[in-house]
Amino acid sequence: MRSSDLHQRPTRGTRRVLLALLTAGVLVSALPAGAEPARQETPSPALLRSLASAMSAPEAVGDTFDAQVWLLDMQSRLARRQPRAFASRDARLDLLARIHAEAARAGLPPELVLALIDVESRFQPGAVSSAGAQGLMQVMPFWKAEIGRPQDDLHDTATNLRYGCTILAHYLAREHGDWTRALARYNGSLGLTVYPEQVMTAWFSRWWVER
């Protein structure tokens, strides 16, 4: 599935069809017989340059007026997920404002970033995976060394979102708008479809916004 298709914002009926197809694995290519998922790739120079530039840029600032309705809507949805680290309404609004701003800076749909966080960490800033990925968007620590920023704290919300959104946006550009392959690269599972399906299902079922 390509980003241009998703930005057309399908109707409710079409969304149900897309969700059913994603669940059935129809919209994404299956892993060829005998193939293995991709191992950790060597970071490309282009991605490292993008990441280094992004991390040295000022904090993203969203347009709170345009985003106000979105923030209130997503705040109530996030509350239903009962995130312990964002138990208060103010904490949820602050998180959502940061997500909206960072997604806009990277050219990503903020609802998709929410879906990715939902799948990756269940909105736990202190989450650490068995592979060592950290924070809301489960960023691997090796990225800090690659761009010469060992001081960065990947459990810090703003830092984690900046890393995660920049990396995902780069993979989307590399895959020419193909969300399935971009999400698989983000997860380190290129060739498999389970992870992209999980993120898309979370997007369509919990975070979708009709426009």
List keywords for this structure.
single chain, 211 residues, Lysozyme, 0% strand, Transglycosylase_SLT_dom_1, signal, Lysozyme-like_dom_sf, Transglycosylase
CATH topology: Lysozyme
Domain count: 1
Q: Write the H/E string, N to C.
A: HHHHHHHHHH
State the helix count.
10
Helix content: 55-70%
Give the number of DSSP strands.
0
**At the first level of CATH, what is the class?**
Mainly Alpha
Any low-confidence stretches, pLDDT <50, length ≥5?
A: 6-10, 21-39
Structure description:
This protein is mainly α and 211 residues long. It has one domain (3-28, 43-207): Lysozyme. It is 58% helix and 0% strand. The chain contains 10 helices and no strands. The protein is globular, with a radius of gyration of 17 Å. The model is unreliable at 6-10 and 21-39 (pLDDT under 50). Residues 1-35 form the signal peptide. Belongs to the transglycosylase Slt family. This is Transglycosylase. Keywords: Signal.
